[in-house]
TrEMBL record, chains A, B:
Gene Ontology cellular component annotations, sorted alphabetically: lysosome; membrane
InterPro entries the UniProt entry points to: Beta_hexosaminidase_sua/sub (IPR025705), GH (IPR017853), Glyco_hydro_20_cat (IPR015883), Hex-like_dom2 (IPR029018), HEX_eukaryotic_N (IPR029019)
Single GO molecular function: beta-N-acetylhexosaminidase activity
Name this protein carries in UniProt: Beta-hexosaminidase
Reaction catalyzed: Hydrolysis of terminal non-reducing N-acetyl-D-hexosamine residues in N-acetyl-beta-D-hexosaminides
């Protein structure tokens, strides 16, 4: 599918607005949204002014007879039908499939009788080339094509994941129209992602976020074609992961027992993500950022002052075998709970002071011949952890400090760059031959007044001096929403639609970089979120959506 | 009541925490909330460790036989009973009084049998000295005292408004307790506001905000004892006010006809505010900020370039009588729709360029002998408007530019200071003898990362060089949430609890200034908002609430 270069050449990338809004010299005072433009911008899209009506009683999805199919496709078709025709009931439906579609709220604006003289789009034919994978991976093919002509449209994809991305795009092409109720234009799209890893990190340790809210966030990710949920599940502050092997970890380390993700919660979250082609990459950050782990299990370094333990704790204690025995058991469990090939091992911000203060650690340093170089101790720790996780069959990602501190890791490690100057670090990491992810410029938790998304939009993971081979090692990036000032009250409104601008950077062609051209499309996308029940906040200045939040 | 200086001296201001949370050396990693501490800090509060249980089946409000009473009191007692005992159903109830209390969600944690050996608080006796006013005013008395001893408590107030403030405080004193379900401590409080005008501005022109969301905001204001809703209802971008006299104003000037406040909407909002002792001060800003007014009614100045009208419009056109005839009719209507004594007339950011370009305005300047001094034209306009509004019997507030531009206004005008350096401006305005409001340091729409409320908390309206007489002219201040990047998705989470820190500055004693002391109380107040269904965002760093939002 990716090799359809000919068709790419044939299709001009046309931004064709079908706007029906009245022209008004005064409306330079607020942002005008596009109508029926997808977000993120497809690699190639051609539309014409030819409109078709779309009506729930006259439209259906059809799986091509020769297509591969599977439960993922069946449920995706069910979801997208509801999303297109019953948007106001959709969120309730996906959070609680027993809930009832609110026909009054979602009643189609036009009857079939109203549309009797109108050309209607009657079906979308879906065709998938290859058998469905059970879970998405870093290597999954997400390409697809859409052709909307006459009364029928076609969606073709190599994989189920491409079909899901294509269905999302298809749902963006359909727009509310005063004359037709819902309409779609004659359109041809060829599309595939520029980067394979388009991630979003949420931190559930500084503040707990309910599974319900995490699911709303996954739905929002899927609406912008993001495909990796980086689940920063535990940290110093709290340990909300309910471990089967070590239930005391959350028993003592969670804020309280209402602030715990049970095994069922996590399974349900992973399934919700899988349905949307989203990988769940969990992070168990160590040896630092682990204070909440150590409340009942003695694995942290005891800090000393004046020759005595001072009742403070440092990073994991690498001088004791018991630490690694614990980690073996812990990561064996994690390997079975989280199906994704990758586990994020953290490794950031390790403070050496407590290690330095502890006599047993000092003795261990001597025994190992590390001298006073505590980065060797860090390397020793990380290599042990990496071996433990490797032995479960998993791959791993780490924060950049591991490389900065010259720790040797396996060749297939993914290194996440989060510090400035990021171009230097990207060059350095890829020169060492590691695959890399960029997150430095996408720390969405650092809020500021105004159109701050323009800075996210301008940041590019290929913005560094390196060879083509080095550029290819950049697998994508992640928007990060750290939780110091974020919880269920504001995580969705603060993340969306700002994260969608990162999503477009990581999906669309490298030359899609003009924030002014993006603004009206982003405004439409925000209104689309609102119509779907997701409270995406205003980011472009004064504006309105036909359907506002919380009416 | 205010003269109870003796009792004030007798009561030490004691911050006594009844916290039952386990002590934990690791929880320095997150903020600990107080337990049962009111926000804003009362003028004087004394509590003891003596606890009483509070149970819905054993507690009732009682209006003292000799007390004044009225419908406002009856409905306040009904509301606070539900708020105290059915907090999770409360918001639904006040937004839709037909809705049903969700007994399952709100079931008391303890039965009366559980509490058989516990001292219980059985009643709150309410006593009001003076007959109820129908609407709160700038001069209303909000003082009250609360005494909780043995099995009965007493709330005394001069006015209904003081009783409402006292009920709010009483509801803060009651806290969830593992052993008692709900508990209250032996407490004595003497309380009154430091400033009479404790306002919050919302802007419904840059983005529309539904009446439902405006009511949630009023409830949040009442939870922090704020008493003025500054309703910046229209501006350049849109005109959502449905005028009886000029329905075309919203017909053409609203974003669309779903983005309009009907007369019924506004009446219902004003009643909701009145029930909470909140004044609704509406702002119809002119002569600038009026682009949306001029879409169908020809009242704006036509701008010229190259000797011809250029299809752009400027401020209201003061050279035509028709402008003032329109304003007469408009403000007569406004005077009947909004019962508060004050109307805010705006007057900020008037651009003279368009006036300068217009030949009719030029001719009028000549005729009036204004030379080239367009601030004289502004003064002419404002004095006409002020006379128009004055003739309806109303008082008025204006933004500081009116004074900066040396426009003479009536002595009872309230001048709102919004520019830096605010101490100079406060000194200047009060020296001229005008009453003044401060908002410069409380533009909450200017978000930034971290604990930004500390800056709001430090800002004081008496922080300027002036005589005691000048200080007395400062009637209070307003937190402003301008709407460029704010709509129903994020207005509550961005405003709360940040506006509550302004509320404490304006209510509590001048020496309540330590942000570190305030932090745990603010954290409790935030959790109180969540328990009441209002999504107040985290502002103190990592933390948790027993009841999180969106579970």
């Amino acid at each position: 599918m990716r090799s359809s270069a000919l068709l790419l050449v044939l299709l001009a990338v046309v931004s064709h607005s079908h706007g029906k809004r009245p022209r008004d010299p005064l409306n330079s005072f607020y942002v005008q949204a596009t109508v029926g433009q997808p977000w993120p911008q497809p690699q190639a899209i051609h539309t014409t002014p030819q409109q078709y009506g779309v009506h729930p009683a006259a439209f259906h999805f059809l799986v091509n007879q020769t297509s591969q199919t599977c439960d993922l496709l069946t449920s995706a078709l069910d979801r997208y039908y509801k999303l297109i025709f019953y948007p106001y009931s959709y969120l309730n439906y996906i959070l609680d499939p027993e809930s009832v579609i609110d026909e009054i709220k979602d009643k189609p604006k036009k009857t079939l009788f109203d549309l009797r003289d109108t050309p209607l789009l009657k079906r979308l034919n879906v065709y998938i080339q290859e058998p469905c994978e059970q879970y998405p991976t870093l290597e999954s093919d997400e390409s697809y094509t859409i052709v909307v002509t006459s009364d029928s449209a076609v969606l073709e994809a190599v994989s189920i994941w491409g079909a899901i991305r294509g269905l999302e795009t298809f749902s963006h092409l359909i727009y509310p129209d005063d004359n037709l109720g819902l309409a779609i234009n004659q359109t041809t799209i060829i599309d595939f992602p520029r980067f394979q890893h388009r991630g979003l990190l949420l931190d559930t340790s500084r503040h707990f976020i309910s599974i319900k809210t995490l699911k709303i966030n996954l739905e929002a990710m899927s609406n912008s074609k993001m495909n990796v949920f980086h689940f920063h599940i535990v940290d110093d502050q709290s340990f909300p992961y309910e471990s089967r092997s070590f239930p005391d970890l959350s028993g003592a380390g969670a804020y309280n027992q209402d602030h715990v993700y049970s095994q069922e919660d996590i399974a349900s979250l992973i399934e919700f993500a899988r349905q949307r082609g989203i990988r769940v990459v969990v992070e168990f950050d160590s040896p630092g950022h682990t204070q909440s782990w150590g409340r009942v299990i003695d694995i942290l370094t005891h800090c000393y002052s004046g020759g005595k333990p001072n009742n403070e704790f440092g990073p994991m204690d690498p001088s004791r075998n018991s630490t690694f025995n614990f980690l073996k058991k812990m990561f064996s469990e994690v390997a079975t709970v989280f199906p994704d090939h990758y586990v994020h091992l953290g490794g950031d911000e390790v403070d050496f002071d407590c290690w330095r203060s502890n006599p047993d650690v000092q003795a261990f340093m001597k025994q190992m011949g590390f001298g006073n170089d505590y980065s060797l101790l860090e390397q020793y720790y990380m290599q042990k952890v990496v071996d433990i996780v490797g032995s479960t069959g998993k791959g791993y990602a780490v924060w950049q400090e591991i490389i900065d501190n010259n720790v040797t890791v396996k060749a297939d490690t993914v290194v996440e760059v989060w510090k400035d100057p990021y171009p230097d670090e990207l060059a350095r990491v890829t020169k060492l031959g590691y695959r890399t992810l960029l997150s430095t410029c996408w720390y969405l938790n650092y809020i500021s007044y105004g159109k701050d998304w323009v800075n996210y939009y301008k940041c590019d993971p290929h913005n560094f001096a390196g060879t083509d081979a080095q550029k290819k090692l950049v697998v994508g990036g992640e928007a990060c929403m750290w939780g110091e000032f974020i919880d269920a009250t504001n995580v969705i409104t603060t993340t969306w639609p700002r994260a969608a601008t990162v999503a477009e950077r990581l999906w669309s062609a490298a030359n899609v970089t003009d924030p002014n051209a993006a603004t009206p499309r982003l405004e439409e996308h925000r209104c689309r979120y609102l119509r779907r029940g997701i409270p995406a906040a205003p980011v472009n200045g004064p504006s309105y959506c036909d359907f506002e939040f919380n009416r």
